[in-house]
Design brief:
Blueprint lengths: L1 E4 L9 E4 L5 H28 L2 H32 L1
């Protein structure tokens, strides 16, 4: 029995026991399945986040704030020009 432990990974990958009876094929298949699962979970999470409205909302707020800053900066410049002309 070969026991593998991982630190800093998701709980589902914390500890796995591999029963390898003198064949590398079993170990190879095990790791291929584990990598496949991890890839599936990562892609699922990326897809879920991509569908989330949070990114769209953040972009909208960013654009609103940029517009307000531009308007404020333009009004400050106009006021300075008016003061210089007096």
């Amino acid at each position: 029995v070969l026991t593998l432990s991982f630190s800093g990974m998701n709980n589902q990958y914390v500890r796995r026991e591999v029963f390898c009876r003198n064949t590398c094929d079993e170990l190879k298949r095990f790791w291929e399945r584990e990598i496949g699962k991890q890839t599936y979970y990562r892609e699922s999470e990326e897809h879920r986040l991509g569908r989330s409205a949070l990114g769209k909302l953040r972009e909208e707020w960013k654009q609103k704030l940029e517009t307000k800053l531009r308007l404020r900066n333009n009004s400050d410049e106009t006021e300075k020009r008016a003061n210089v002309g007096q």
